[in-house]
Amino acid sequence: MRGVVMHAPGDVRVEDREDPQIIDPTDAVIQLSATCVCGSDLWPYRGIEPVDHTLMGHEYVGIVEQVGDAVRTVRVGDFVVGSFVISDNTCEICRAGFQSRCVHAQLVGGTIGTQAQKARIPYADGTLVATPGHPDPDLVPSLLAASDVLGTGWFAADAAQAGPGRTVAVVGDGAVGLMAVLAAQQLGAERIIVFSRHEDRQALARSYGATDIVTERGDEGVAAVKELTGGLGAHSVVEAVGTQEAFMQAVGATRGGGHLGYVGVGYEVSIPGMALFSAGIHTLGGPAPVRRYLPDLVQRIWDRTIDPGRVFDLTLPLEQAAEAYEAMDQRRATKVLLTP
Amino acid sequence: MRGVVMHAPGDVRVEDREDPQIIDPTDAVIQLSATCVCGSDLWPYRGIEPVDHTLMGHEYVGIVEQVGDAVRTVRVGDFVVGSFVISDNTCEICRAGFQSRCVHAQLVGGTIGTQAQKARIPYADGTLVATPGHPDPDLVPSLLAASDVLGTGWFAADAAQAGPGRTVAVVGDGAVGLMAVLAAQQLGAERIIVFSRHEDRQALARSYGATDIVTERGDEGVAAVKELTGGLGAHSVVEAVGTQEAFMQAVGATRGGGHLGYVGVGYEVSIPGMALFSAGIHTLGGPAPVRRYLPDLVQRIWDRTIDPGRVFDLTLPLEQAAEAYEAMDQRRATKVLLTP
């Protein structure tokens, strides 16, 4: 089969890789219908994270081709959506809703690499969710989004306790930030402020439910949110960028006792303990437990209640993966869907 | 009146200071029955925080001597306990339970300085809580503890979501850590692990409800908690020290999706964003909103359900404040009560 390997920063190649096989009885092998490039794939692409002949890709939807003997909830022929973290969904941590910290957690990116034609998914029952039937083609991008960006944005909004009567501020107008806007709207937030300087993303954010746009950043961005919230700051803040400035902007925009959900932390971020202490806020972040939200998200997409697939603004064949990375790196595209 | 002024690091003096007067109609002037030295008073004492002729002390109980015209809930002659942060208890932030971040918040330490015979307390209704009557003398240390260390330890345990079925780990065996143990026990925690190397504090911790003692620190301390919790880490962790090692030990001891309550952050602490992100935990910290808990804590003390006053292991007259600081600095005392 064909699959993406990043040899070194900036060096993305589509190569012949061995066809995946069932190894453990809890495995499934799926034939991918769609995959994509994640904002986080740009970290190694830009040399910020280590990379060395790495199997890329961790977002995926597809059709189950084979299952191991122990697999119970997904069947050959099912259309499935999977989380970007493998989970058994039965351990104590999973049962508490933190499947991304499962005792059997494994990142799909780097070890499996779903920018490919096929993938072996361990703990298939605990990782994959079957859709009610084979989806109409126009639903595929939205289902693919559920695999990471939607699930991550949703987790961030939930972690920030977006909900009725609350003002939510979203730092980041990338795919995850936009999905957090959508999630905040679905969760019933009263007001949704987005930090954005890009007109096309502002428009998409508004279409997903944003009520206010702030173009300032850093301390000025914080001041703008305070001005919009009677001097108090937002009840709920989502951080979906991953830089030092963005994280501290998110801390500053959160009112005392408010909630910060962060999903974009990069290696450079170092949080002054005293600043976090003085803020007096709740925080929850980390790799999103997408599997917790998947059944609900799949249903909302199936019912056409939400349309997260619009976050993809470019579609390319898998063979042109290098072009997809380049387009995202140069911000010519927000998020690129790849067809295997 | 007499009161404590810290001229410079290590230079604690008891001096004549002007008698406090009502300035605003929401003020009360109280005659202090007891005050004490806080672990945080040792930061300036040791030169870690700036200090320059600073009015010291922020924990206090006493009898109301005068009230302004607008004061409604406390009366002249009442015995009162106050929070170490002034709050109006009516603003939106206060109503959400974060009185330490009140729009009128003011730290008592440094501006009022309750290591003194009297104190003017702004926003008396929002800051002070009257006891049901004048307390028996043996209740005074416990009521004084409610002013900060008990309230702070309680907030930390609550922030860590200590409760039934949960394993709580407490980093720090100082007064606040010990109070967090007491709080965790009262909140119904199933198991309470304390990091401690001091036999007397271990004994006090056990008497307050600790079930396990861990003497290791840092990564070894984390490993010990993991071993006690089936490899997962504690559900709830309290950080009550304020050093880099203690904070990261607390992060490491918290299971994925667990809750960290931190109340002891010092200036040196810098949290690597990626470490916090990877941990995937809830955090809540900052100056404790003691006022939220005060009515409940006063009642539990009044009913003799809890006995936090045992955390004081030395009592000195106010005039010997310098000796009190020295005893705590040299760890000859956990916490010193001063009688004005």
Automatic annotation (TrEMBL), chains A, B:
**The keyword Ribonucleoprotein is annotated on this UniProt entry:** no
Q: Which UniProt keywords apply?
A: Metal-binding, Oxidoreductase, Zinc
Q: Name one Pfam family in it.
A: ADH_zinc_N
**Looking at the keywords, is Zinc present?**
yes
Enumerate the InterPro entries for this protein: ADH-like_C, ADH-like_N, ADH_Zn_CS, D-isomer_DH_CS1, ER, GroES-like_sf, NAD(P)-bd_dom_sf
This protein's cofactor list reads: Zn(2+)
Q: Where is the signal peptide?
A: none
One example GO MF annotation: oxidoreductase activity
Q: Which CDD domains match?
A: FDH_like_ADH3
Domain Enoyl reductase (ER): residue ranges:
7-338
Task: List the PANTHER family hit by this protein, alphabetically.
Answer: DEHYDROGENASE, ZINC-CONTAINING, PUTATIVE (AFU_ORTHOLOGUE AFUA_2G02810)-RELATED, ZINC-TYPE ALCOHOL DEHYDROGENASE-LIKE
Q: Which family does it belong to?
A: Belongs to the zinc-containing alcohol dehydrogenase family.
Specify the protein name.
Threonine dehydrogenase and related Zn-dependent dehydrogenases
